[in-house]
Amino acid sequence: MKAEISSRFSEKTEEECYNNFIELCKYYNEFHHDWNEANTRHHFINKFLNNCLGWPDDSFNLEEHINGEYADYIIGTPEKVIIEAKKEGVYFDLPPGSTEKPIQSIKTIFRGNDSAKKAIEQVQKYCSGKGVEYAVVCNGHQLIAFVAIKIGDSPLAGKALVLNSLEAMKQHFGVLWQSLSPLGISEGRLNRILTNGSATTLPPKPSSRLTSFPQIRYQSTLQANLRDFSELLIEDIVNTSDLEGQFYEECYCDTGALSRDALLSKRILSARYASLFPDTEESPRMQSVDTRESHEAIFSNDMLQEALSRRPIVLIGDVGVGKTSFIKNLFLRKASEEARSSILLFIDFGSQATLSGDVKEFVLDEVENQLFTQYNIDIQEENIVNGIYNSEIKKFKQSIFYKSADDDNGRDKLIISMLVEKVKNKSQHLKKVIEHLAKARRKQVVIVLDNADQRRHELQQDAFLIAQEFANSWQALVFISLRPQTFFQSTRSGALAAYPNKVFTISPPRPELVIEKRLQFALRICEGDIKHASYAGLNIRVGSMALFLRALIISMKSNKEIREILSNITGGNIREVVQFVKKFIGSPNVDADKIIDIMTREGEYFIPLHEFSKAAILGDFAHYNPMSSLASNLFDVHLPDEREHFLSTMILEYMNSEYSKKDADGFVSTESIEIEMQKNGFTIKQIENKLRHLNNKKLIESTLRVTFDENVSGLFGDMPHAFRVTSVGSYHTLRWLASFSYLDAMVFDTPIFRDSIFEEIITKKESFHIVDRFERVLKFRSYLTETWNKSGINVPYFDWQTVVERDEQAFAPIRRAILKMSNS
């Protein structure tokens, strides 16, 4: 947003605005006599805002109705400044010395100055009702500007920029322009000039009173064993070469098969990579990969044309959607015949813990190593070197250097020396090796650069440039997988300016189907149906694992809610889904002993949904830890405003509702989000804080697929044009928001603005007993309800009380369990 503001108002520099102000002063001195309020606005303030500060005419909204009154000017979209205009005859008797010292206390201004006091209070009330942070009072020749909303403090207790005359405005024009120009307002310069930051602090979170936080919950011996087996059987199995073919045969799921249980419309899910490029920009043609077609379609004419045009084939997909699985399945199953007659070099950037040195050197070393280990091709072997450089040897034998040697031995040494120099140039030598293999052995060389998206942005660009070089000059068919945001940013910045004409997109498969197949495969290994040397002897030790896996499979098949949580909480990131299930098996927050005991006795157990929610929200910790949890605390606040407990949810619900204007791909403009939230009294700073946080926690995503950087002051970065809700965000509001598991976790991470409630919540803060937890949750929920009721927020798309009533039925089993405990 700041970048847009800067470019939009870049026509007028500070110097131009100053010169315009000098002309305006001349005009004022000649004609200002007896101007009424309308004349003051028309003849002075309009010109002042437009010519002297740089606000265009279309950024003014005049005479807007606010709570039965009318604000003279509301400036900006979204709204940034409210100006109260007074007639020229209304004189502000401002404090002595304000010409020399333009920063004055508002309380000082109020003393004996009823006209200024009334005007300041009036415009501050307008700002408070609209969520507009900055206010100005102006009568033509005098101006007062101040911060009208100070979260957790009275704005009328602060300071103001006071310019007592046109001469004072001229003298301090630099401060005036920096404070009230569009760019100055967007950067909050007036706030910094007047306050140097707010001293008001947030109230404490209950977690601040815990003896140990964050506290790891340690596993039992059984849980630790289950975790070890889950890593072995669910994750590591994929990388076992002897079982790899069978694994993909039995476990691979087609990409792009939209999850039946995702809480977003199929239209939005299918438009996963839409809107990467604005309509005004040239963009590459993108085509979805459909793995359900025959393998002839996988090696389509489109792909071959890309290869023949000496360009890499780019596979675009978000992290964890299954790009590696797609490539592996392509060569192990779909195109296995072609793969057997090819030389396939698979460069995995994700498998190396660190990449030291030059990226290209790493790739060249990997190519050399794989040629030797997989195809028994030693690039330094004498016969291969002689075959590759046969023409160069013949040419060298005709040279004067060769013939100047004294004998055959000397001539042979010259040839060897010449060949050694060529082999030392690894890049050119490997290129020659690849060309030789393609021509002499009639082998198609396929190079796959995979998992570069697990590395930093700069490395991904380097990988693409290497792929471009390989495809262009090595006569190889080159695949490279990239994140959509890397592709977008790089093509914009010019690093990937030579992007291919066609890009293939990979959409995630159904997460619940991926997990079900992996669990079945792991179970077959546990029970000995799949044999492999690496797992020999394990079957006598994994009885508990097999029972747990069976319970997990039974629960997933029978409970739609479990499939739903797996489909939604990771946003289609298959890698994260696998990680979550792996950690769920053996989680210290899951009662594995009870599950296995019941499975042993009864042969069947249905794991309840709240066990999955608890594992997702808490992970391996005793309390909610925002750094590691899959959940985000929607009730957290960044500024000392208790109404902010509901701002994150309001943003999500507004974006999901029929009341927001969405484009064809489900994106809602940032501007409309800010305007809507401002109507409810929230400032731009609060709104943008929440948007950045929601984005980084993956509850929403932007058109640019960016994440925001963080420093000691919080998240920062220019706001993208638009956002849309992800399945993660939808699950938070539709399933978690007022549930027991969610409230039970978030109570410790939420600042409590009422001391009495805070003390009640921490009374038994160390207790994990269900009775104490239940009482704590009820107090927390009541606190939120009271806060909502006094907030005055009334919007058609969200009501906290309705959400509480919706989720109340989930509290009934807990009440029954507590009652049963008390009666026993």
From TrEMBL:
SUPFAM superfamilies reported in the protein's UniProt record: P-loop containing nucleoside triphosphate hydrolases (SSF52540)
One Pfam family per UniProt: AAA_22
Gene3D superfamilies: P-loop containing nucleotide triphosphate hydrolases
Name used for this protein in its record: AAA family ATPase
UniProt GO MF annotations: ATP hydrolysis activity
Source organism: Gluconobacter japonicus
Domain ORC1/DEAH AAA+ ATPase per the UniProt entry, residue ranges: 310-456
